[in-house]
Amino acid sequence: MAVLPPNAPVQWEGGLVYDFGDIQHEKAVEVVFSFQNLGADSLRIDNVRASCGCTTPDWTELAVPPDSTGYIYIEYDAEDVGFFSKSIKVYFNAYRKAEKLKIEGYVY
After folding, report:
1. Which of 4, 30, 76, 77 sits 20 to 30 Å CA-CA off 58?
2. Dihedral through CA 13, CA 29, CA 55, CA 73, nearest 10?
C-alpha cells in the first residue's frame, strides 16, 4: 500500500483566510481563492467541502499543471446577522490531508 503525502504542494495567493468585513444582511458575497501548483506533477481538486450550507464552493475542474494557477470560488449567503467564521476544506488528488481555508465577517 502506497503512503500518501500529507499536504498538496500549493501556495495560496492572498492567504488562507478572507475577511469580508461588514456585509449587508441577505446579500450574497463572493471571494476567489487562488493557488499556485508548486509540485512537479499536475494537481486536480477532488472535492471542496464547506462547513455549512450557507457557503457554496465551486472550483477549477481541470488539472492544474506545475507552476500554474487554480481557483476556488466561494459564495457566502448572509442569512444570519452577526459575526461568522466558516471553514472550507480543499482535497487534492493523491493527498490525504485537506488544505483549510476560512472566510469571516460581520453581517449587519
Report:
1. 4
2. -40
> Are the C-beta atoms of residues 101 and 90 closer than 8 Å to each other?
yes
Q: Look at residue 74 in the predicted model and tell me its pLDDT.
A: 98
pTM exceeds 0.85: yes
> What string of H, E and C letters represents the secondary structure of the chain?
CCCCCCCCCEEEECCCEEEEEEECCCCCEEEEEEEEECCCCCECEEEEEECCCCEEEEECCCCECCCCEEEEEEEECCCCCEEEEEEEEEEECCCCCCEEEEEEEEEC
| pLDDT score of 100 | 96
* Residues in the chain, pLDDT under 50: none
Q: Which of 40, 44, 81 is nearest to 60 (CA)?
A: 44
